[in-house]
């Protein structure tokens, strides 16, 4: 209760006049609306932290929206009600129903998204023609799984999204025999590709730098560096964090980094972000000082099982063998559920951009002199790909697995 009240107060200040933020609708009284992309982000990262500890993760929002659409189109009764309710929040907040032309990214925009959504069913399952049409109209691959070929073809499809995703699914995920596996496998995968507009990272400035995993543990990570220059940086006082926006070449999409002031501030910040519309942050007043920038090189493969992880959104029955009603697939009520629902993404960030490798590019190192302003992402942070209409992806970096030898830092060991 105390926590809820203080977050409430915090946000009342946050959304006060003069901040340049778009106020959200109130919820319930005097409470800003929760924002679907950041609520989804928070729920997923929370679910993951209890299982494994990757370097970071990235969630691609469009492909998940499509997959929720598949779950809805497949289910009936209270199973469908749960999904519809979760999606109502989604359409209200992210404006997926918004087809205004100005909101669509122009074809000339060089920010590229590749995504794949597939629904795999036992080959003996009778599928209504209406259902098959509907699923295919959504751009989703509907496939009866055959033991001799389907896993290879799925692997090929995933490798077109990213070669690093090729082997993320296994034959055990697919249902081959209806009697033994009355289940549906839904898989979502995505990656993004873009080149920096003017980030000015240079290959020759790449170094191993300290990274604070938390207040006590520290390791070294490969780090990008860019010399001082004018940036899109803003201190977000109410979030107790600093935001850096890096523009992408020939695109309106921005790479957003939100670095908490405190080394272990990410967890609390992600809680508060549930009430923040990331798109509105693009409009905050920027500090026009010159900053140099350090960002870790990232190479994150995310493989999250969402079937255990959507309870937060109220989506539960569709995964439950006793309660699931997937009768819209066949037109009959029968034992059938979604057993596995993985979300797969690959996110690689380097001197050139995102999921883009071309070390041939030679850039001139410009030196504009020293600065006292630094943006060093040397402890866990939140990141997003966002334009003023849409949140494409959210992620976090820095939940690193630390080698016990690294705990005190390599510098200290070598000096002893
Ligand atoms: C896989 O098996 C099915 C029948 O079980 C057969 O019709 C199909 O041709 C086989 N595909 C390949 C690639 O061997
Ligand atoms: C969905 O549920 C409703 C109400 O229980 C039922 O009338 C309808 O036939 C069901 N649809 C399918 C495709 O099973």
Supply database-style keywords.
single chain; 416 residues; alpha+beta; Alpha-1-antitrypsin, domain 1; Antithrombin, Chain I, domain 2; 3 domains; seven-stranded mixed β-sheet; six-stranded antiparallel β-sheet; 17 strands; 28% strand; disordered N terminus; binds 2-acetamido-2-deoxy-beta-D-glucopyranose
Query: In CATH, what is the class of the largest domain?
Result: Alpha Beta
What is the annotated CATH architecture of the largest domain?
Answer: 2-Layer Sandwich
| Low-confidence segments | 1-29, 94-98, 409-416
Total of DSSP H or I helical runs spanning 4+ residues: 10
Spell the H/E element sequence: HHEHHEHEHEEEEEEHHEEHEEEEEEH
Number of strands: 17
- The percentage of residues in β strands lies in 25-35%
- N→C terminal distance: 49 Å
Largest sheet: 7 strands, mixed
The small molecules bound here are: 2-acetamido-2-deoxy-beta-D-glucopyranose
| Overall average residue pLDDT | 84
Radius of gyration from the alpha-carbon trace, in angstroms: 23 Å
* Spatial shape: elongated
CATH topology of the largest domain: Antithrombin, Chain I, domain 2
Strand pairing plus helix content: what structural class?
A: alpha+beta
Q: How many domains in all? A: 3
Helix content: 10-25%
CATH superfamily of the largest domain: Antithrombin, subunit I, domain 2
Protein name: Ovalbumin-like
GO cellular component, one term: extracellular space
Domain Serpin: 38-390
Signal peptide: 1-20
